[in-house]
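lol so apparently i was supposed to do this last week
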Amino acid sequence: MEYLPVFLAVENKKCLIIGGGGTALRKAKLLARANANLLVVSQQILPELQRLLETGRHQFRLGDFLPADLDDAVLVIAATDDEALNRRVSELAGTKNIPVNVVDQPALCSMIFPAVVDRSPLIVAVSSSGNSPVLVRNIKEQLETMLPERSGQLATLLGRFRERVKEQLADFPSRLRFWEAVLDSEVPELVYSGNVNEAERRIESQLAASVSTNFGGEVYLVGAGPGDPELLTLRALRLMQKADVVLYDRLVSEEILQKIRPDAEKIHVGKERFNHPVPQETINEMLVRLATAGNRVLRLKGGDPFIFGRGGEEMTSLLDNNIPFQVVPGITAASGCASYAGIPLTHRDYSQSVQFLTGHFKDEDEQPDWSLLAKANHTLVFYMGLLNLATICKQLRDHGLPAATPAALIQKGSTKSQKVVIGTLSSLPGKVARANIKAPTLIIVGEVVKLRQKLNWFQVDKVD
Ligand SMILES: C[S@@+](CC[C@H](N)C(=O)[O-])C[C@H]1O[C@@H](n2cnc3c(N)ncnc32)[C@H](O)[C@@H]1O
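anyway here it is w/ S-adenosylmethionine bound
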């Protein structure tokens, strides 16, 4: 972060503006809304600005800037066309540690103004750290349409209850749950439709009920998809904001983890092929223990929790311990990788069925019945198959699939590191060995792989 976003209290404090044109007027209006005491110094002052300054507590002087103008100021704005003057103001303010903004000269600023969506007392500030004012305006416009006009009234109403809620619900987790329950209820809608009295009554009764409520813990078993954070479901995102503790897998990317509520505790319980730092039984026990202690626990898994994700085992253990839970499906690697590689898993001309399998088997006994898999017009998707790629391709050939059957291996599908290796059952293992491939990878076998030639839409180097 280049700038620290803060909200500054300027009520009844002196703010100095040097300059009397249109920019000075806009800044003066903003500061006046925050009840600052303005001093404007300029050779000339726009009539509209003068009218504003003649109301109430403000002052202005027609003339030159004097260093003494800075005395007691908590904020300075230089809004003149005179570069030398702007620089002098900036330097003098710097020596006195007064935050200074020089309009359109970021190098001379120790503070910048954000764009503001004002639903006072609710305020949203947007900044691109000076990079793109048009982008900021765009985002501000979106926020203006998204935020109901009366959201400030809602903030005021909730603020009126804050102290009482603090007194009645002593611990922070209970207060958090209470406020979340209020915001999940019909209270916001009542305020937005102008029915503040009824909203107030509802909060009163929720508060009365909550004193005797024991807020228990629960578990959210959530699929995080194959990697691209934009493939998270809306429900996954909502629960990521709610959870107190998160147990996440190795395949959940850093970008996705950043979307979790910042103060939630994050625990990595990922498993790798030859490295199982946290055994499954321990994960099951942790989920039960953390939820029993009253936490909302997010169990975040790559892809979909019910596809090669051991979600069923974790659910069974929760059920055995009477822990409430919910399951949120995610986009499984087969769907995510196939889409981002431009390989439809079924197609009227090439494949009428698709099968998801694990390619992780240690010996012959664990291997699938290959004769059932080696079928025409059928797509096979192998998860965890990188180390057994050669065996998979050979077995399918030995059991009847032509050596020229198209096959693909997709590394880290849907992410910036996606790589796709295309070959046939005879050529793919060699090509993969030469391609410096890293897990996780997915293997797709079948005529549908041919379609990638036409349908390859996802350009990794175009991802930012
Ligand atoms: C333990 S399984 C978990 C599967 C997950 N539950 C799902 O629905 O996608 C892990 C395997 O999923 C596959 N996988 C997951 N994400 C992937 C990705 N982005 N690209 C390629 N393969 C992926 C790999 O085969 C990896 O070894």
